[in-house]
From TrEMBL:
<feature type="transmembrane region" description="Helical">
    <location>
        <begin position="59"/>
        <end position="81"/>
    </location>
</feature>
<protein>
    <recommendedName>
        <fullName>Ammonium transporter</fullName>
    </recommendedName>
</protein>
<keyword id="KW-0924">Ammonia transport</keyword>
<keyword id="KW-0812">Transmembrane</keyword>
<keyword id="KW-0813">Transport</keyword>
<feature type="transmembrane region" description="Helical">
    <location>
        <begin position="362"/>
        <end position="387"/>
    </location>
</feature>
<feature type="domain" description="Ammonium transporter AmtB-like">
    <location>
        <begin position="30"/>
        <end position="454"/>
    </location>
</feature>
<dbReference type="GO" id="GO:0005886">
    <property type="term" value="C:plasma membrane"/>
</dbReference>
<dbReference type="InterPro" id="IPR001905">
    <property type="entry name" value="Ammonium_transpt"/>
</dbReference>
<feature type="transmembrane region" description="Helical">
    <location>
        <begin position="140"/>
        <end position="159"/>
    </location>
</feature>
<comment type="similarity">
    <text>Belongs to the ammonia transporter channel (TC 1.A.11.2) family.</text>
</comment>
<feature type="transmembrane region" description="Helical">
    <location>
        <begin position="266"/>
        <end position="290"/>
    </location>
</feature>
<feature type="transmembrane region" description="Helical">
    <location>
        <begin position="166"/>
        <end position="192"/>
    </location>
</feature>
<dbReference type="InterPro" id="IPR024041">
    <property type="entry name" value="NH4_transpt_AmtB-like_dom"/>
</dbReference>
<feature type="transmembrane region" description="Helical">
    <location>
        <begin position="204"/>
        <end position="222"/>
    </location>
</feature>
<keyword id="KW-1133">Transmembrane helix</keyword>
<dbReference type="Pfam" id="PF00909">
    <property type="entry name" value="Ammonium_transp"/>
</dbReference>
């Protein structure tokens, strides 16, 4: 006879009922949660480690904490109002209605994007709404980590000087009034979605918006201290590579999860992601060797990122050869804008974009969206895009119009983020200063958090007997050994 414990364990495998409803596909549900977790790992700990190690030592704690705070803050905002503003019922053509995503009745129902039904011009249905075979809870989780990483990427423009209190206010405001607009417009069934603008996994929603918003916010916050702008070496290159590696591998979930199913298009997306990233890294490195005579590790990481960003709008929509072409472009054009154009532009030199997010995300994101409009393959488009007969310009037909749609969609995201980010910064400035005071800028983590990343002397700090003690470690150990009783050995 089966025990009560055996019966309770078997409930999870019941073919019907609340736990395993008929519409649930366990494979799709498992992949969607794994993909979401991979994207979450890109932020926590991936970008936390990357930010904490790529900056000057005195800003390691502050940079890592800005990423950590954003990741946590987005979660609460997302389930309270953000999800339905991005993927719920329409309020206006670019924004959904705010409502919580917390009740079990909502979270246990089959996932659906209610405004994603696409209609022909005569009003007849062209494609049905997006209705994956897993619960709404999985969809809310998956989309939340995308929102979180967008704010963290934006923070890369502001490291080393933004007032942490201002950042704490900025995060929920920007999520509410900027991110949700782009997400609903392009993914949730808004006007750009209905028009057929392609953004497979966030080249516009995440990367273009974070790059433009980061650059805009950097303008309003102001620059780092003069000393930091002149010299800002990474405090741990090997740890930076660890964070970069987590970011790269996590992109399998980033692009592989967006078909909302463990289907063949997800496989194409993951493969193309790695092809483009590898190509871009190699091209960037070759350019460094040709023009600067040395391969730069930081440059290689930048090239990796631009490749990942560029492929994102079309990961499951282009063929492998196109991913290579996109990698060549993403490894060279952002390199050119960062290394050449930046130094010749008065505006770019004036705005202190700490990690060059404008180049690695805005330029690469726009490039990816535009090249998707060129190389999107008709058969692959049919697996994902709601507008039938969609294709890139390279494949003729209406492809030329698709390229123009891609450019127009990018211009909307750019314009909205410049305006809204500026308004948010001006509002926050009325409450708290956007930039740290000069005394905190001079000291860094110890002044801002009362903590330091490493138990080491500060940059350029000389030995101070009143602060560090009269004896060095070797002298202290030698005296301890001399004072030890006969027959007792001290561990030195």
């Amino acid at each position: 006879m089966s025990s009560a414990a055996d019966y309770n364990m078997s409930v999870g495998y019941a073919p019907n009922g609340i736990v395993v409803p008929p519409w649930l596909n366990k494979g799709d549900n498992a992949w969607q949660m794994i993909a979401a977790t991979l994207v979450g790992l890109q932020s926590m700990p991936g970008l936390v480690i990357l930010y904490g190690s790529i900056v000057k030592k005195k800003w390691a704690v502050n940079s890592a904490f800005m990423a950590l705070y954003a990741f946590a803050a987005v979660w609460l905002c997302w389930v309270t109002w953000g999800y339905n503003m991005s993927f719920g019922h329409q309020l206006v053509p670019f924004w959904g209605k705010a409502r919580p995503a917390l009740g079990q009745q909502f979270l246990l129902m089959q996932a659906v994007l209610p405004e994603s039904t696409h209609f022909f011009k005569d009003g007849s249905q062209e494609t049905a709404w997006i209705n994956p075979n897993y619960p709404m809870a999985s969809m809310v989780y998956f989309q939340c980590v995308f929102a979180a990483i967008t704010l963290i990427l934006l923070a890369g423009s502001l490291l080393g000087r933004m007032n942490i209190r201002a950042w704490m206010i900025f995060v929920p405001l920007w999520l509410t009034f900027s991110y949700t607009i782009g997400a609903f417009s392009l993914w949730g069934g808004g006007f750009l979605f209905q028009w057929g603008v392609m953004d497979y996994s966030g080249g516009y929603v995440i990367h273009l918006s974070s790059g433009i918003a980061g650059f805009t916010a950097a303008y309003w916050v102001g620059p780092r201290s003069t000393k930091d702008r002149e010299r800002f070496p990474p405090n741990n290159v090997l740890l930076m590579l660890t964070g970069a590696g987590i970011l790269w591998m996590g992109w399998a979930g980033f692009n592989g999860g967006d078909p909302y199913s463990a289907n063949v298009d997800a496989s194409i997306a993951v493969l193309n992601t790695n092809i483009c990233a590898a190509t871009s890294l190699l091209v960037w490195t070759c350019l460094d060797v040709i023009f600067f005579k040395k391969p730069s590790v930081i440059g290689a990481v930048q090239g990796m990122i631009t490749g990942l960003v560029c492929i994102t709008p079309g990961a499951g929509l282009v063929q492998g050869w196109a991913a290579i072409v996109m990698g060549i472009l993403s490894g060279s054009i952002p390199w050119f804008t960062m290394m050449v154009v930046h130094k010749r532009s008065r505006l770019l030199m004036h705005v202190d974009d700490t990690l060059g997010v404008f180049h690695t995300h805005a330029v690469a994101g726009f490039l990816g969206g535009a090249t998707t409009g060129l190389f999107a393959e008709p058969t692959l488009c049919g697996l994902f895009v709601p507008v039938t007969n969609s294709r890139g310009a390279f494949y003729g037909g209406n492809g030329g119009m698709q390229f123009l749609k891609q450019v127009a969609g990018a211009l909307f995201i750019i314009g909205w983020n410049v305006i809204v980010t500026s308004i948010i910064c001006l509002v926050v400035r009325l409450i708290v200063p956007l930039r740290m005071p000069e005394e905190e800028l001079a000291i860094g983590d110890d002044a801002v958090h009362g903590e330091e990343a490493y138990a080491l002397w500060g940059d350029g700090e000389k030995y101070d007997s009143s602060k560090h003690g009269w004896y060095s470690d070797n002298e202290t150990n030698l005296q301890a050994r001399n004072k030890a009783p006969s027959g007792v050995t001290q561990n030195v």
